[in-house]
Specification:
Number of domains: 1
Number of helices: 4
Distance between the termini: 78 Å
Shape: globular
Number of strands: 7
Strand order of the largest sheet: 2-1-3-4
Order of helices and strands: HEEHEEEEHEH
Helix content: 25-40%
Oligomer: single chain
Length: about 170
């Protein structure tokens, strides 16, 4: 094989590798390293996986996971805005199985904060089944919500407790 043909083959192989890497878009739940991963909202190390959550954000074509120690932290961060990034995917841990769930498919419980303790005291947890969520809601004097209702619930609770952003009541 002559030198020019070898150079062309090497260049073609490099181009193929580069384009294959470029097509690989980050998707799916993150890797959570308990005691090492930091909450993107409050900065605490995440030591409890049952209440943790994550956003996969896209900032001008760059995707990355942002982890949270409490579902309330994730909701608060998203409500305040993500510095121009958009949410591509949302994940929460099933409180019982500890498996990652897509937030849109999860069943959430907003429970009594004294009875259903979470890392930041939100009292918000997720379940993969409606039955599990209903049982937890009954046990913790709470209610079952879908993700959209949960976000509205958290916003109202935060505004009642801390006031509306910008000082309005």
């Amino acid at each position: 094989m002559n030198a020019s043909r070898l150079s062309a083959c090497v260049a073609l192989a490099a181009l193929s590798l580069f384009s294959a890497c470029e097509r690989s878009i980050l998707t799916g739940p993150p890797e959570l390293r308990l005691g090492r991963s930091e909450c993107g909202e409050c900065g605490m190390l995440i030591s409890e996986d049952r209440c943790s959550s994550a956003l996969l954000i896209d900032a001008q074509g760059h995707r990355e996971h942002v982890l949270y120690d409490d579902i309330g932290c994730m909701l608060d961060a998203e409500r305040r805005g993500l510095d121009g990034a958009v949410v591509a995917e949302r994940y929460v841990h099933d409180y019982d199985t500890r498996a990652w769930l897509e937030a849109g498919a999860a069943h959430f419980v907003a429970g009594d904060r004294d009875s259903l303790q979470t890392p930041m005291g939100s009292g918000l947890v997720a379940f993969g089944t409606a039955d599990a969520a209903a049982g937890a809601a009954k046990a913790h004097r709470g209610r079952v919500l879908d993700y959209t209702s949960l976000a509205a619930f958290r916003k109202t609770w935060m505004e009642e407790r801390f006031g509306k952003p910008g000082g309005g009541e």
